[in-house]
Design a protein that fits this description.
It is a single chain. This protein is mainly α and 69 residues long. The protein has one helix at 26-68, and strands at residues 3-5, 9-11. A hairpin with a 3-residue loop joins strand 1 (3-5) and strand 2.
């Protein structure tokens, strides 16, 4: 690039350089959504485990009651 402005300024072989930074802000919300999904899945698995354990205890108790009669 070269510029010549008479009686004011002369610029020869000027170079423009720059650095660009790019970040997708949508990733913040996506990461948060994935985290919420994982926590919900963890809560669901915990509830399913508790339900299964309650069912086992009820079945054992029922079999015990039936056997003692």
């Amino acid at each position: 690039m070269a510029a010549n402005i008479p009686n004011f300024l002369t610029v020869t072989n000027a170079v423009n350089a720059g650095v660009g930074i790019q970040y997708n802000l949508a990733n913040l919300w996506k990461s948060n959504a994935v985290l919420k999904q994982s926590r919900a899945r963890e809560t669901q698995l915990s509830a399913s485990k508790e339900l299964l354990m309650d069912g086992i205890k009820l079945e054992i108790n029922r079999d015990y009651q039936n056997a003692s009669c």
